[in-house]
Write a structure and sequence with these properties.
There is one protein chain. The N and C termini lie far apart (63 Å). The strands form three sheets. Strands 4, 14, 15, 16, 17, 18, 19, 20 and 21 form a nine-stranded mixed β-sheet that branches. It is globular and about 70 Å long. 30% of the residues lie in helices and 24% in strands. A hairpin with a 3-residue loop joins strand 1 and strand 2. Helix 5 packs parallel to helix 6 and helix 9 packs parallel to helix 10. It is of the alpha/beta class.
C-alpha cells in the first residue's frame, strides 16, 4: 500500500460513501470535489467555508425526476437557497417550496417561474401572503383555519388563488422528536382526527376566491423507511374520499411533503428513493381504486436529500487539548454556522484533508469556537492522533440546514458558499464581515 492509503486505514478515513460522487483522492492526503482541491478552496477563500458541488445537486434533481416521472417534485428551499441554487433546480425541471416572502422574492427575482412555486408556513405574515399573491405563486398551503379568510380577503374581488390544506395524518416519523411533524399536538396543520381539516375543506369550497387544489401533509424529517409514508398516504386518500362523498368534490392533487432521510456518516441508513416511488405509486393506485377516486397528481418535496450530500464544510483547527480523558479538537467555526448538532444531536464524520498522516486514529470531539458547552460539531470523530493547529478538516453532507440556519452569534460572521464544478470554483454567497454587522447597527 502507498503511504496515503496506509494513513487512511490508520485514521479510519477511507470510506467516501457519504461524499459527493465527484470526490477524488489526491496525493498526500488531499481530496478534490467537483474537480477542485479542497485544500485549494480553503487557501483561496479562507475558512470556515461551504463547498457546494453543482454536479451533485443537478444529479440528485435528475434522480428525483427519473424516480417520479408523473409526479411534481418541489425542492424545499429552506434546506438551502441562493440564486444559483434556484437556477439549478429550475433548469433540472423541479418546482420550489418556499416558507417566506424572502425565499419567494429571491426565487422569483432569480427567474424562477412563479407558477412552479408553493408557499408554506404555519404562521404566514401579511407580507408573506401579499408577496405570494402579488407574484402569483402556484399554490398556498393553508395551515390554520384563520388563513382561509385572510387569504381570501387579500385575493381581492377579481382574483382566485389555488390552495392546499395541510392535514395532520397522525403519523409519527423522523430522526428526532423535534422534526416529527405529522403527529397530533404540535403546531403544524389541521387535524383529521378532530375534524379541523374537514371543516377547513368545507369553508374553502364555499369560498369563491379560493380554489381547493388538494391536500398536503408532511410527517417529519430524516425518515429512512417507506412504511410511514404508506400509512400517511392511506389516511390522506381516506380523507379525499370523504371530501368527495360529502361535497362531491374530486381533489386533483396530493402532496406528501418531504423528509427523505440521508446518511451523514458511512454505514447509516438512507431512504431508498426507488422503493419509495414504486410503493407510493402502487399504493396510490390501489387506494384510489378501492374508494372509486381518480388518481390525483402526486407531489413530493425533497430538500435535504438534494442539497445535503452536495455540500462539504471546511474548517481550520485552532486548538487541540485533552480534558477529563477526552481529546478536544477546536475549529474556527461552530454552532453559528451549524446549529444542528446542538438542536438535534446530529452526528458527522469529519476528515483530515490536505496532508497525509501515518499516525493511528484517535477518538476526538470536534468543537466550535463559541461560548457554549453545547457548541459541538462532531462527537466520536475518528481523526489521526497527530492532528494539530493549522490542520484542515472537511465535514461531508453539509449542504442542508447549516448556512440556512446560521446565526450571528458572537459576531463571527457566516461563512461563504463556494460552488465547484468541472474544475472551477466560484463564490455563490460571500462571507459575512464585520462591516455587515456595523452597517446594521444604526443606534450610534
Amino acid at each position: 500500500m502507498t503511504v496515503d492509503v496506509l494513513s487512511e486505514v490508520a485514521a479510519g478515513t477511507g470510506d467516501l460513501s457519504v461524499w459527493p460522487a465527484s470526490t477524488a483522492r489526491l496525493p498526500h492526503g488531499g481530496l478534490a470535489v467537483g474537480g477542485v482541491s479542497l485544500a485549494e478552496v480553503a487557501q483561496r477563500f479562507d475558512t470556515p467555508v461551504y463547498v457546494l458541488d453543482e454536479g451533485e445537486v443537478r444529479g440528485r434533481c435528475r434522480t428525483y425526476r427519473d424516480a417520479f416521472p408523473d409526479a411534481e417534485v418541489l425542492y424545499a428551499a429552506k434546506a438551502f437557497l441562493s440564486r444559483a441554487m434556484a437556477r439549478w433546480v429550475r433548469e433540472e425541471g423541479l418546482g420550489l417550496d418556499v416558507c417566506s416572502a424572502g425565499e419567494l422574492e429571491l426565487a422569483v427575482t432569480s427567474g424562477f417561474p412563479h407558477e412552479r412555486i408553493v408557499l408554506h408556513g404555519n404562521a404566514k405574515s401579511p407580507r408573506d401572503i401579499s408577496a405570494a399573491l402579488r407574484l402569483g405563486v402556484g399554490r398556498i398551503v393553508i395551515d390554520s383555519s384563520s388563513e382561509i379568510a385572510r387569504i381570501a380577503a387579500a385575493v381581492g374581488p377579481e382574483g382566485r388563488q389555488r390552495v392546499l390544506v395541510r392535514v395532520v395524518p397522525g403519523v409519527a416519523a423522523g430522526g428526532h422528536e423535534k422534526v416529527r411533524t405529522g403527529t397530533e399536538g404540535q403546531k403544524f396543520g389541521l387535524s383529521a382526527a378532530d375534524g379541523s381539516a374537514q371543516e377547513a375543506v368545507a369553508r374553502i369550497l364555499a369560498q369563491p376566491r379560493l380554489e381547493l387544489a388538494g391536500l398536503h401533509c408532511h410527517i417529519g424529517s430524516q425518515i429512512t423507511t417507506v412504511d410511514a409514508y404508506l400509512v400517511a398516504l392511506g389516511r390522506m386518500v381516506e380523507l379525499m374520499a370523504a371530501v368527495h362523498e360529502v361535497h362531491g368534490a374530486v381533489l386533483p392533487e396530493l402532496d406528501l411533503g418531504g423528509g427523505h432521510g440521508i446518511a451523514y456518516r458511512p454505514g447509516e441508513p438512507a431512504l431508498d428513493l426507488t422503493a419509495l416511488a414504486r410503493e407510493l405509486r402502487t399504493a396510490l393506485a390501489d387506494r384510489c381504486a378501492a374508494v372509486g377516486l381518480p388518481l390525483p397528481r402526486l407531489t413530493v418535496e425533497p430538500g435535504r436529500a438534494i442539497a445535503g450530500p452536495a455540500g462539504v464544510a471546511l474548517y481550520r483547527v485552532l486548538a487541540v487539548k485533552r480534558s477529563g480523558g477526552k481529546l478536544f479538537v477546536a475549529v474556527d467555526g461552530g454552532m453559528s454556522d451549524n446549529p444542528r448538532p446542538a438542536l438535534y444531536g446530529v452526528r458527522y464524520a469529519p476528515r483530515l484533508v490536505g496532508r497525509a498522516s501515518t499516525a493511528g486514529c484517535r477518538t476526538a470531539t470536534v468543537v466550535g469556537r463559541h461560548c457554549e458547552a453545547g457548541d459541538v460539531l462532531a462527537v466520536d470523530a475518528e481523526l489521526p492522533g497527530d492532528v494539530h493547529p493549522g490542520d484542515l478538516l472537511a465535514v461531508p453532507v453539509a449542504g442542508a440546514y447549516q448556512l440556512s440556519m446560521a446565526s450571528g452569534y458572537n459576531m463571527v460572521g457566516r461563512p461563504p458558499v463556494v460552488a465547484v464544478h468541472e474544475g472551477a470554483a466560484r463564490v455563490l454567497v460571500r462571507r459575512e464581515t464585520l462591516d455587515d454587522f456595523r452597517s446594521r447597527d444604526i443606534g450610534g
